[in-house]
Amino acid sequence: MDSTLTTNVDIKALNEEIERESAFINLLTLEMDKVIVGQKYMVERLLVALLADGHILLEGVPGLAKTLAIKTLSETINAAFSRIQFTPDLLPADVVGTMIYNQKSDEFSVKKGPIFSNFVLADEINRAPAKVQSALLEAMQERQITLGDTTFDLPKPFLVLATQNPVEQEGTYPLPEAQVDRFMLKVVLDYPKKEEEKLIIRQHLNPTGKQQPNAVISPENILKAREVVKKVYMDEKIEKYIIDIVFATRNPKEYGLESFANYISFGGSPRASISLALAAKTYAFIKRRGYVIPEDVRAICVDVMRHRIGMTYEAEAENITSLDVINEILNRVEVP
């Protein structure tokens, strides 16, 4: 049998499986829409991070439904949710937990912190000092916490949604680049449109009260969907496209981007390539397709790459951002 034909048959079977397994995406979105007006972009990115087993950093002014979005998502999945408000006086024990001495039994017992949840909202992460940030980021990377002599696995699924307020700079501790790299996606939120804001007002002034989302799936469904996401077919040409995009951030001159060479201090790490490939697969799954197309890579590229490119002082002086670099790379790099 012709190998091309075999691949086609496999793709057809895979498409049917993905179509079947991704049916819950519509249910989740419908439930989220009951509560969240607009912000479809943020909700879609939340689903990408959740299904790709990554974490997400949200940047936006207060009042854009960041907290509401992750709380609603946890309710639709019937999962445990906790919120940590980061402040300058927060200690690592306030996040991960601590050992407490019991005088009666003359022994230490473990008191687990709010990190032991499926969905953790780290609100205003840049307000906490480095020790607290590193405690959270270790949990994100290792998916486990050590208290005393005992190591505890964090629940599955485990998703950290950290928020940053770009307006206030006093009393903040900006996340170092190496720590920001741990987040699979960085999403920058904008204000809602006029029509959306009108609906938001109506919803909040509704005398019958807010609509409550229903739990439509379980955490086990998410874990199963993650395994299916890994099966999504990615052609070698797409892999090359992803590598070209990431390498263009490291060696812009090789890709005809000489004008940007002085603006980039460092490019994306191998973690960027892995995240972009996995996010593209997940995006294809959300779009209920069994294979990745270049549009999937392009759709998710900005959110995966924007926090992984270091910009020089020259770039800041000329108001050139990582977003400008990514857009130029996507225009220049050959699409398969």
Q: What fraction strand?
A: 5-15%
CATH topology of the largest domain: Rossmann fold
Helix coverage percent? 40-55%
Radius of gyration: 22 Å
Residue-averaged pLDDT: 84
**Strand segment count:** 11
> Can you summarize the main beta sheet?
5 strands, parallel
Instruction: Give helix and strand order, one letter per element, not per position.
Output: HHHEHEHEEEHEEEHEHHHEHHEHH
Structural class: alpha/beta
CATH class of the largest domain: Alpha Beta
Q: Span between N and C termini?
A: 26 Å
**So what's the overall shape?**
globular
Strand order of the largest sheet: 2-5-8-1-9
User: How many separate domains?
Assistant: 2
CATH superfamily annotation of the largest domain: P-loop containing nucleotide triphosphate hydrolases
Mind explaining what this structure looks like?
With 336 residues, this protein is of the alpha/beta class. It has two domains: 15-210, Rossmann fold (3-Layer(aba) Sandwich); 232-332, Magnesium chelatase subunit I, C-Terminal domain (Helicase, Ruva Protein, domain 3). The chain has helices at residues 3-21, 24-35, 40-51, 66-76, 92-96, 130-142, 177-180, 194-204, 219-231, 236-250, 270-286, 294-305, 313-317, 322-332; strands spanning 56-59, 81-85, 97-102, 107-112, 119-123, 144-147, 150-153, 159-164, 185-188, 264-266, 310-311. The strands form four sheets. A five-stranded parallel beta sheet has the order 2-5-8-1-9. A hairpin with a 2-residue loop joins strand 6 (144-147) and strand 7 (150-153). Helix 11 (270-286) crosses helix 12 and helix 12 (294-305) packs antiparallel against helix 14. It is globular. The relative contact order is 0.15. Mean pLDDT is 84; it is low at 1-7.
